[in-house]
Design a protein that fits this description.
Elements lengths: L5 H12 L16 H34 L6 H4 L9 H30 L7 E9 L2 E6 L4 E4 L1 E5 L3 E8 L4 E5 L3 E6 L5 E5 L5 E7 L11 E7 L1 H12 L8 H13 L29 E2 L3 E2 L2 H9 L1 H4 L13 H13 L2
Parallel strand pairs: 1-5, 4-10
Antiparallel strand pairs: 1-2, 2-3, 5-8, 6-7, 6-9, 9-10, 11-12
Helix pairs in contact: 2-4, 6-9, 7-9
Bound molecules: dinuclear copper ion.
GO molecular function: copper ion binding; cytochrome-c oxidase activity; heme binding; oxidoreductase activity
Protein name: Cytochrome c oxidase subunit 2
Main location: membrane
Amino acid sequence: MKRRSPAWWLLTIPGLLAGCVSRNNMSALDPQGPVGKTQLNLIYLSTAIMAFVVIVVAVIYIYVVTRYRERPGDEKKGIPEQISGSKKLEILWTVIPVILLVILAVPTITTTFRLEERPDPAETIRVNVTGYQYWWAFKYPDLRVTTANEVHIPTGKKVEFNMTSQDVVHAFWVPSLGGKLDLNPGRNTRLVLQADRPGVYEGKCTELCGASHALMNFRVIAHRPADFDRWVASRQKPDSTAKTAEAREGKRLVGQNCIGCHAVRGAGFQVEGTTAPELTGFSQRTRVAGIMENNRKNVTDWLKNPQGLKPGNRMPAFDHLSEKQLRAIVKYLEDLK
Ligand code: CUA
């Protein structure tokens, strides 16, 4: 049988690594804020220590294997001298790893405690994050604003995320800004992040939490401070009126079918559900259900078949409604600004 040369395998490595190229700001190796940069420095330090160990071990291994391999005539010399135990070597290969671990541990522990510090409340935006299967609720307790799956922040300012879960353990990770941290039911965890530049930073749930764990996405949208203030002002005065007769019919259907789980503030509904994403200002969101572009077709698809698009979530299919009724609901959602 013809053997393939190892070079053939080496050639596939760049191809596999090409899959790691960052799109949509999703690389921890390209940090966009101070927390991400600090964490990247730790990644570099631990990688350097690991590379050092791998290189030293590989060099010794190659040296020993070539220097002491069996050569013709060795069998006549008999068994080589047998040595058991060497205090010098034992001490050496205990002390070296201890030194390496101390070099790794000191910056890791000090950084961990530094990132845990609570920032000055006057200089901080507070956001309460609640994880649900499979979406994110973001509440700004000081600003009286609530969003879902998209969290807006100002640049150059620390943002304190106070996190908990409504069901199972989730984890919050925005690769280019920092993380990750678990959201535990019945407990609060705190993560402070900051973005240096305006932009959209993709976030992910990174704790296996059920069938649609891989679809539990969110976005951090960073604005210049003045733009952020404008966004807050617009969210504090949402427009929830239906503008056309079709949208008014949609509003009636939303009241019958959606309110109870969802809320639309300022629309005059008797109930404001909290177990599903708040729909206030729905047309201003960039995505539907955190996974698809927010457009008419995707909203309709979502209403018809939420289980097919995000298996295991708690939204029932609205296939009992006619096409006309679905269109009316979509029209009303488009009016929510
Ligand atoms: Cu939530 Cu994985």
